[in-house]
Each structure stands twice: as C-alpha cells, then as structure tokens.
C-alpha cells in the first residue's frame, strides 16, 4: 500500500464487502495469479492503483476500495461497488483536492443520480448524470447558477481520465516487446474485440458450432491479430443476451478505444434474419424472439451506427450468419417463415469500416459436421493464420483475406451440394494481420 489513508480503509473495505453478498462469506483469495481469483476477497497492488475488496473471475466485482497511485492521480480514491472490473452501482469518489462525487456509476462512468460537491462552499451539482456529464438538476433553485463548467478545469481533465480508467482485468499488462509472447505470434497492438457466438438458442433451432466458432476466433484474435486477451470481450450462448451485447457495444467498447488509434474487431456467429417490412437485417442474440425483432434482436444498421461513432482508427466486422431466415442446415428458423431477399442499402459504409459476411442476403451460412465449424469461419481462421497471404509478404490484407475465404468457402459448399458466397465491403488494401 502506498499511503496511510489507503492502509486505514483496507480493513474497512474487507469488513463491509459483504453488503453486496449478504448471504455469502467470501474467503481470502489465494495464490499469486489474480486472474484465477474468484468469489474471494483480496488486495491487489499495481504501479497505477491499489485495490482491496471482492474479486469474481479475476476481476473487481462486489464492493471494495480503489486508490489511484499513479503520479497524476495520487490521492484520489473510490469506495463502493464494482462489476466486471469497473466502478458500477453506488460509490463515492474522493478527489485529492477535496472534491467528491457520491452517486451512481454505470460501467466506469458517472451515470444516474449523483451529487458532486466542492470543498470551497460552492453549491453542489445534484441531479442526473450521463456518460460522466451532469445533465439535469434536482437540487434547490440556488443551484441554478452552478453548471458543469465549474468542474471543467485542467484538474477536471485529469479526473475524467481517472474516472474512465479501464480496470477490466487487474493483472500484469502485456508489453509489446514481451518475451512471454508465443513464437510466431503477432506483436500486441492497440486493438480491441467483441466476440459473440450463439449455438444454443432459447426459442430457436441450434446454430451448429457457433459457440465453438467464437472461442476459435478469440484465440486467433490474440495469436494472429495481436489483441491482448484482456481486450477481448467474449459472449457465448447464455451470456450472449441482447442486453449484454448492447452493454459491451455502448459501454465496454468505448471505454477501451483510443480515438484515432485503436483498431476494433467485432465477430458474430449465430442466426440472422431479415424483416421485409422494415428492410432491416437482424443478428439474433440467445434470447431473440422472431415475433419481436425490434425489441429482442440487434439490427445490422444499429450495429454499424454504434461502431461508427466510437472514434476508432478502423472497424472490422465478421458475420458468420445469414439473413435468409434459415439455420445452419438450411432449415427455416420458424414454421412458415421465409427468407427475404433485400437489396443492399444505397448508402455506403462509413470510412474505416469493413464488413465481411458469410454469404449473400438470400443464402444460408452453413455449419459443417466434418469441419466442426461454420464453413465461412473455418476458412476465415485459416486465412488469418497465413494461408491468405498470397504474395508471401508476411501480411494479410483485407483483399487477400476476402479473396481466399470467398474462393475456399464457395468451393467447399459446392462439394457438399450447397451454395455459399461470402461478401466483403470495405478497403481491400487495409492490412489486417502481420505475421
């Protein structure tokens, strides 16, 4: 521990941590590998922060106290609730200059009801917060003269950085020159990925091997795309609910993107369907209901719109799904349901976004028993691993990958008496992987 204040509250943190888990007594975390700490209480010291409290699946979750010890933020600390490694729920953030925020957080940011108070007697900002910004007052009329500008000083810039620090996984960070990387692995890059795979639906036929596809893509993302494991959000089967996917897209992903520098990857394997009346294409989460697509599914348009506004350097989307209303064996998802062919949208993709889908809008995206994967995904993996590097320059461009996957997928599909032709829209010159 790095100062007396933090030492004094560690005991309190461990004593009150049961408020969230009132019916559960958590044991002390054992071992030095914090990624294995689960359903326990422990203390983690890092160069940038110190934490004492609950751990779940190797991440801060429950109640705890977090003190920032980096040079810029020394003296700031937070006491309250965490979820999935981030401040989430009710908490109190104490700033070194005496200012304080007490209120609700949503995945690391001030969001909900809260009060920001000042040590110099200025009226507090009390009311609603959204995405770290004060948006509405519920205090007395004398607070009307106080605006969010009162906390926009240079000091506040540092505070906002502190409040949005990503504490997703409190384990050692990967050094881009680290000798721990396996032989042949791509160097770590400024990149992040959301990986979703749904094989076992609540109300729909199975999408064969889709969960296995997601696990394999996660491994390839680390080995061939150079994405550090803590920067990959994986949701499979029961985890892949619509709400969890939206939380990942709207909160988890933006918190990890450095504007203009981060490459973003999204991979989805599972069912998709088109709605003829709205001319929309939907990805189906595990809890999707085809009678309530707008309320339970994720539209492709919604996905692209969200990804286009996060400020990433590039966005690459892989969709091992189809919108023909059929499963991976070519059968209708629901009785009497028909696949609908919809013309591509007239407007082009935003700059920097690439989309690679498993087939045309009227074709099925097949899973294959012999390959134990979706056909598209199987050749996508092989292409990323280097087989798409047709010119031998140790790089795989989007054009090379698209040509390889399209050729191999179509050829294999013909061999099993199917038709499947992957489609790519984006910059063919973009370098995807470096070996």
Describe the fold and architecture:
It is a single chain. The chain is 21% helix and 28% strand. It contains 8 helices and 22 strands. The chain is elongated and about 75 Å long.
Kindly list the characteristics that best describe this protein:
alpha+beta, 8 helices, 28% strand, single chain, 435 residues, elongated, 22 strands, 9-stranded antiparallel β-sheet
Number of strands: 22
Radius of gyration: 24 Å
Instruction: List the uncertain runs.
Output: 1-23, 139-150, 152-162, 164-183, 324-330, 332-347
Helix percentage: 10-25%
* Ends apart, CA distance between termini: 41 Å
Largest sheet: 9 strands, antiparallel
* Overall mean confidence score, pLDDT: 78
What's this entry about, in short?
This protein is α+β, with helices and mostly antiparallel strands and 435 residues long. The protein contains eight helices and 22 strands.
Task: Write the SSE topology.
Elements lengths: L3 H13 L23 E6 L3 E8 L2 E10 L8 E7 L2 E9 L5 E7 L2 E9 L7 E6 L2 E5 L16 H10 L27 E7 L12 H14 L8 E5 L5 H11 L10 E7 L2 E4 L4 E4 L9 H4 L1 E2 H9 L5 E7 L32 E5 L9 E2 L4 E2 H13 L7 E3 H18 L7 E3 L5 E4 L1
Parallel strand pairs: 10-11, 10-12, 12-16, 16-17
Antiparallel strand pairs: 1-2, 2-3, 3-4, 4-5, 5-6, 6-7, 7-8, 8-9, 13-14, 14-15, 17-21, 18-19, 20-22
């Amino acid at each position: 521990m790095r100062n007396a204040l933090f030492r004094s509250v560690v005991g309190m943190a461990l004593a009150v941590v049961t408020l969230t888990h009132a019916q559960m007594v958590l044991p002390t975390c054992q071992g030095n590998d914090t990624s294995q700490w689960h359903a326990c209480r422990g203390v983690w010291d890092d160069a940038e922060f110190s934490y004492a409290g609950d751990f779940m699946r190797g991440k801060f979750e429950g109640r705890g106290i977090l003190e920032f010890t980096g040079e810029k933020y020394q003296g700031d600390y937070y006491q309250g609730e965490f979820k999935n490694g981030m401040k989430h729920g009710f908490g109190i953030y104490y700033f070194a200059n005496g200012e304080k925020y007490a209120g609700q957080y949503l995945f690391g940011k001030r969001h909900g009801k809260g009060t920001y108070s000042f040590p110099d007697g200025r009226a507090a900002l009390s009311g609603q917060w959204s995405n770290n910004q004060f948006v509405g007052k519920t205090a007395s009329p004398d607070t009307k003269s106080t605006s969010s500008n009162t906390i926009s000083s240079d000091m506040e810039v540092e505070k906002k950085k502190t409040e949005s620090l990503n504490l997703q996984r409190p384990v050692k960070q990967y050094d881009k020159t680290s000798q721990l990387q396996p032989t042949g692995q791509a160097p770590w890059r400024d990149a992040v990925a959301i990986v979703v795979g749904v094989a076992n639906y609540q109300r729909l036929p199975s999408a064969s091997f889709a969960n296995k596809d997601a696990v394999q893509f996660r491994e390839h993302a680390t080995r061939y795309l150079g994405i550090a494991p803590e920067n990959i959000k994986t949701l499979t089967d029961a985890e892949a609910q619509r709400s969890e996917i939206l939380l990942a897209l709207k909160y988890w992903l933006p918190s990890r993107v450095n504007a203009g520098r981060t490459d973003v990857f999204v991979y989805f394997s599972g069912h998709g369907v088109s709605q003829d009346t709205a001319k929309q294409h939907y990805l189906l989460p595990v809890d999707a209901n085809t009678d309530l697509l707008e309320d339970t599914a994720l539209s492709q348009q919604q996905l692209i719109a969200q990804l286009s506004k996060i400020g990433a350097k590039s966005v690459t989307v892989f969709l091992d799904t189809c919108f023909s209303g059929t499963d991976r064996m070519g059968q209708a998802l629901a009785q009497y349901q028909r696949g609908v062919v919809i013309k591509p949208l007239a407007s082009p993709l935003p700059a920097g976004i690439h989309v690679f889908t498993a087939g045309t809008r009227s074709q099925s995206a097949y899973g294959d028993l012999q390959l134990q994967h979706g056909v598209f995904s199987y050749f996508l993996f092989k292409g990323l691993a280097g087989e798409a590097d047709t010119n031998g320059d140790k790089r795989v461009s989007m054009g090379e990958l698209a040509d390889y996957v399209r050729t191999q997928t179509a050829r294999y599909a013909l061999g099993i008496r199917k038709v499947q032709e992957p489609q790519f829209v984006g910059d063919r010159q973009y370098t995807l992987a470096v070996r």
